[in-house]
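Example with several molecule types.
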Amino acid sequence: MYTQGLDQKGQAGKRDNLESAADLDAFQKRIDAEDKIEAKDWMPEAYRRTLIRQISQHAHSEIIGMQPEGNWLTRAPTLKRKAILLAKIQDEAGHGLYLYSAGETLGVSRDQMVADLLSGKAKYSSIFNYPTLTWADIGAIGWLVDGAAIMNQIPLCRCSYGPYARAMVRICKEESFHQRQGYDILVELCKGTAAQRDMAQDALDRWWWPSLMMFGPSDAESKHSAQSMAWKIKRFSNDELRQKFIDVTVPQAQFLGLNVPDDELELDEATGHYSHGEIDWQEFIEVIKGNGPCNKQRIAKRRKAHDDGAWVREAAHAYAEKQAAKAAA
Amino acid sequence: MGKKEWPLYEVFIRSKSGLSHRHAGSIHAADDQLALDAARDTYTRRNEGVSIWVVRSSQIVASDPAETAAFFEPAEDKIYRHPTFYEMPDGVENL
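Resulting structure tokens for the full complex:
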């Protein structure tokens, strides 16, 4: 669903001593010429590390992102909504797998990436540490969280690293369904009773600010964006993407008859952009540090699912070995 | 973690008859049949294919990117292999 580009401190900037200036220069020239970098091509170690971190965080976000949605699977209001939600959650798993594959092309194993998620070493998007309290939250996630994800992911389709860019093309096509189904849920609620409209408003109230945080720290604070931009992993700054998201989303909220929970929100007629209130970065930092409402629950559940599935993985192995032995005999 | 990782397979999908199979991505699976099933679930949830090939990644023999220039060099200087190399006299048609 989304990558936040966290924890880049002291990593992206580090240069491997064995890399010659000529190699680095030739590499940057390829990037500047919009040439795509492929799996086995030479690349600076810092480029590789940055991508492994970003792609694996992105993959983990997809996998953890299944949990808040899965919370409503057995309580979806109709069979149709349940089938749609099931398909969406299956997509999230698929997105995780596309991304793990892309990550593996950089020389890190799937098991290693999964181990890093389970141990807490690797991060995932802060947004999935918020609870889904009502059915309207499923609508808000599709509309806002997937909407923010699309905003961030469309430029990633042109990322300089080929396998990541190709995975993103596939993901973006599918995210569009996610966003529309979310908005569709809210349209239905907003046409309903006063209680249903209140439920939709409550969901927007709780998801608006965390959705804006999905774009990551403000440009002034985001120290390592410059390198990612130079490598064309990133094409737009966090604040640029956040602004784009606000500009397209506010009118969608107005259509629903819902209030965006920001008193300072105002359209600047001259620029066509909305100005907005200050984001509570302290909250963001706390959630990233592990102190969000659901951090512990999310990881505990993932660990349990992994442990509970161990016998399946072992059985599949045993069966494959038995069949191979039979075929060889 | 399990004792060992499932092998990696590359997935190729024919989107419709008449077109070639095209690389879609990769998956891990314990055996060939499970690889096909996983490839179907991962890469064709929206009717993207009518046929799937899976092959163990370890079985693919690939050219070395570091040797790209030298490897493809023999074709570099043979511009006469292209029809545009030949200038046709004025007045000659259908050629």
